[in-house]
């Protein structure tokens, strides 16, 4: 009798543990597993992020998101990737600077 009650309970616990081990609702489940060697044109890229052990991923990579929301994984040590990151940062800074100037003009 106790086995009939205990067995479904054990199966439920095992299913929950297996579900969690698969990476469901785990940010690491979106990790890059390899990086692309292709050069990415800046006009295609919207944003980027960095993944690594601190974000729960084994592989350290730069993840570029294109304007069409396609994710491209690249090596952070690649010189063309570093150049693209600098270009995106400069573009972001310039956009932020122009936005601040417009806001100041509106206040006057």
In short:
With 108 residues, the protein is an alpha+beta fold. The chain has helices at residues 2-21, 79-107; strands spanning 45-51, 61-66, 71-74.
| Main sheet: strand order | 1-2-3
Can you give the mean pLDDT? 80
CATH second-level architecture of the largest domain: Beta Barrel
Number of helices: 2
Poorly predicted regions: 16-25
**Distance between the ends:** 82 Å
General description of the model:
The chain is of the alpha+beta class. The chain folds into 2 domains: 1-29; 31-107, OB fold (Dihydrolipoamide Acetyltransferase, E2P) (Beta Barrel), CATH 2.40.50.40. It is built from 2 helices and 3 strands. The protein has a 3-stranded antiparallel sheet, covered by helices on one side. β2 and β3 (71-74) form a beta hairpin. It is extended, with a radius of gyration of 23 Å. The N and C termini lie far apart (82 Å).
Structural key phrases:
2 helices, alpha+beta, OB fold (Dihydrolipoamide Acetyltransferase, E2P), 2 domains, 108 residues
Question: How would you summarize the topology of this molecule?
Answer:
Blueprint (H helix, E strand, L loop, with lengths): L1 H20 L23 E7 L9 E6 L4 E4 L4 H29 L1
Antiparallel strand pairs: 1-2, 2-3
């Amino acid at each position: 009798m106790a086995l009939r009650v205990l067995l479904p309970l054990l199966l439920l616990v095992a299913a929950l543990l297996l579900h969690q081990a698969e990476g469901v609702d785990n940010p690491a489940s979106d990790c890059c597993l390899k990086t692309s060697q292709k050069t990415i044109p800046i006009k295609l890229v919207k944003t980027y992020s960095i993944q690594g052990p601190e974000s729960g991923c084994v592989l350290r990579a730069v993840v570029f998101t294109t304007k069409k929301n396609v994710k491209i994984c690249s090596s952070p040590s690649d010189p063309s990737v570093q150049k693209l990151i600098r270009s995106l940062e400069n573009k972001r800074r310039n956009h932020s600077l122009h936005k601040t100037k417009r806001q100041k003009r509106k206040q006057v």
